């Protein structure tokens, strides 16, 4: 049986966040995680995440961590501290999605 992912990273490629910026972030994550399969990390893109005014957005599941306005310089910290170290990067963390909370437009 295949081992489940510890972290699944979704880089937004919606129109407002910018498809090319989201694809660039995805490429950076993959480049910094050549051992991602062994670490249990999957990196994907998503369509609009519904937080357009705060983009580009990156969500990390299953923790439900949301990073807004992610720049290329932020990817290295997310990889080192969150994906490898297990601690979200508080300085750039925007919110954590609570699975028991009702969805909102914000």
Structure description:
By secondary structure, the chain is α+β, with helices and mostly antiparallel strands. The chain has helices at about 20-30, 35-40, 70-85; strands spanning about 5-10, 40-45, 60, 65, 95. Strands 2-1-3-4-5 form a five-stranded mixed β-sheet. A hairpin with a 3-residue loop joins β3 (about 60) and β4. α1 packs across α3 (about 70-85). The longest helix is centred in the N-terminal third of the chain and has 14 residues, at about 20-30. It is globular, with a radius of gyration of 13 Å. It starts with 6 loop residues before the first strand and ends in a 10-residue tail after the last strand. The mean pLDDT is about 85.
Short description:
By secondary structure, this protein is of the alpha+beta class. The chain contains 3 helices and 5 strands.
Evaluate the radius of gyration. 13 Å
Strand content: 15-25%
**Mean of all residue-level pLDDT scores:** 87
Report, as a whole number of angstroms, the end-to-end distance: 38 Å
Q: Output the strand order for the largest sheet.
A: 2-1-3-4-5
Shape, please? Answer: globular
Q: Number of helix segments?
A: 3
Poorly predicted parts: none
Helix content: 25-40%
How many strands?
A: 5
Give me some keywords for this one.
alpha+beta, about 110 residues, five-stranded mixed β-sheet
Furnish the topology, listing elements before pairings.
Blueprint: E1 7-12, H1 19-32, H2 36-39, E2 41-46, E3 58-61, E4 65-67, H3 72-84, E5 93-96
Parallel strand pairs: 1-2
Antiparallel strand pairs: 1-3, 3-4, 4-5
């Amino acid at each position: 049986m295949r081992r489940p992912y510890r972290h699944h990273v979704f880089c937004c490629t919606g129109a407002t966040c910018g498809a090319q910026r989201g694809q660039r972030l995805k490429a950076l994550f993959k480049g910094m995680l050549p051992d991602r399969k062994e670490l249990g990390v999957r990196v994907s893109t998503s369509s609009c995440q519904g937080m357009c005014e705060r983009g580009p957005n990156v969500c990390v599941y299953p923790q439900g961590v949301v990073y807004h306005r992610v720049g290329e310089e932020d990817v290295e910290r997310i990889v080192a501290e969150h994906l490898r170290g297990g601690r979200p990067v508080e300085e750039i963390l925007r919110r954590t999605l609570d699975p028991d909370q009702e969805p909102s437009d914000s």
